[in-house]
């Protein structure tokens, strides 16, 4: 199966991202939305630790890092929006109380939908995706960290500017994100904001920090990256740091696939609109000899290793 065209590869290499409209057909979109809603409705609150998702990028909030999160790499688990809870404990349960029904309070579902959910597996581990990965130069593409990101109406939390290889570091960096819009994402409902060209070897394009497990798996933290900061073969580019003029707020129709370079700077704002913004995403890393997945990464591979895409 054919992968990307030379023009598409060139665009990805120049900008650090590429939007592919209509990558999913309407029946695939409906299947994934139905599965998402089923998962949201069926999980039990009684046994849930009520783990809230936050990277702690504001230097005040704690980084997510309990066992429920750290052991989710080969499971389907549910992580709540911090703004979905009251500030007081429920007097009957002694636990934080939700302000909204649970299906409207979840931030994301992860992190192995591509292996444990048939509808998500059907659009993830495909020859089409393998062909795209080969177009981008992957020799042994491996899939990991699959999740539905749920920007719930009025409370969907912001994702600060970051680079994906900070979270899924290989030596040298190799991560590429596959981001599927399950609903329209545009200005006003927390769509993606991408800094064009910010993946290149500019001062800001390097992977200078990493999101890792603390010693003894006692949570997570950001640490300085002392390993390679650019993908193999990427040359230093002295153009300068990206500025506001490089920021593009994407307008993405449901069914589109956005490919996201692991070194490109991107973000999304809080969803203050009455419209939800659901997206399915996973990442691909290089599994071939010459690249090493770091043992300090927050997500560690299952015994059988990460899923082969080819």
From TrEMBL:
Q: Which GO terms describe its molecular function?
A: dioxygenase activity; metal ion binding
What keywords appear on the UniProt entry? Dioxygenase, Iron, Metal-binding, Oxidoreductase
Superkingdom, natural source: Eukaryota
**Protein's UniProt keywords contain Oxidoreductase:** yes
Write down the SUPFAM superfamilies for this protein, in alphabetical order: Clavaminate synthase-like (SSF51197)
What cofactor does this one take?
A: Fe cation
Q: Provide the coiled-coil residue spans.
A: none
Family, according to the entry, reads as follows:
Belongs to the PhyH family.
Q: What is this protein called?
A: Phytanoyl-CoA dioxygenase domain-containing protein 1
User: What organism does the UniProt record list as the source?
Assistant: Penicillium argentinense
């Amino acid at each position: 199966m054919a992968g990307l065209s030379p023009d598409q590869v060139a665009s990805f290499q120049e900008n650090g991202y590429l939007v592919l409209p209509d990558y999913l057909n309407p029946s695939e979109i409906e299947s994934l939305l139905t599965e998402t809603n089923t998962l949201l409705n069926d999980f039990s609150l009684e046994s849930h630790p009520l783990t809230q998702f936050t990277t702690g990028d504001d230097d005040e909030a704690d980084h997510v890092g309990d066992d429920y999160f750290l052991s989710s790499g080969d499971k389907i688990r549910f992580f709540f929006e911090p703004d979905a809870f009251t500030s007081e404990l429920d007097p009957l349960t002694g636990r934080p109380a939700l302000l909204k029904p649970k299906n409207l309070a979840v931030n994301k579902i992860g992190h192995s939908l591509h292996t444990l959910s048939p509808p998500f597996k059907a659009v993830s581990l495909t020859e089409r995706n393998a062909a795209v990965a080969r177009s981008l130069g992957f020799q042994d593409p491996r899939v990991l960290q699959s999740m539905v990101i749920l920007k719930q109406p009025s409370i969907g939390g912001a994702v600060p500017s970051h680079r994906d290889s900070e979270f899924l570091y290989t030596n040298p960096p190799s991560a590429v994100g596959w981001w599927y819009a399950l609903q329209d994402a545009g200005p006003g409902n927390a769509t993606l904001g991408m800094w064009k060209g910010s993946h290149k070897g500019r001062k800001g394009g390097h992977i200078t920090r990493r999101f890792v497990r603390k010693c003894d798996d006692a949570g997570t933290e950001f640490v300085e990256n002392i390993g390679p900061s650019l993908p193999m073969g990427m040359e230093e580019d002295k153009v300068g740091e990206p500025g506001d003029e490089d920021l593009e707020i994407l307008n993405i129709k449901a069914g589109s696939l956005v490919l996201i370079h692991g070194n490109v700077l991107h973000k999304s704002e809080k969803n203050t609109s009455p419209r939800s913004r659901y997206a399915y995403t996973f990442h691909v890393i290089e599994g071939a000899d010459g690249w090493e997945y770091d043992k300090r990464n927050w997500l560690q591979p299952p015994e059988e290793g990460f899923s082969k895409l080819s």
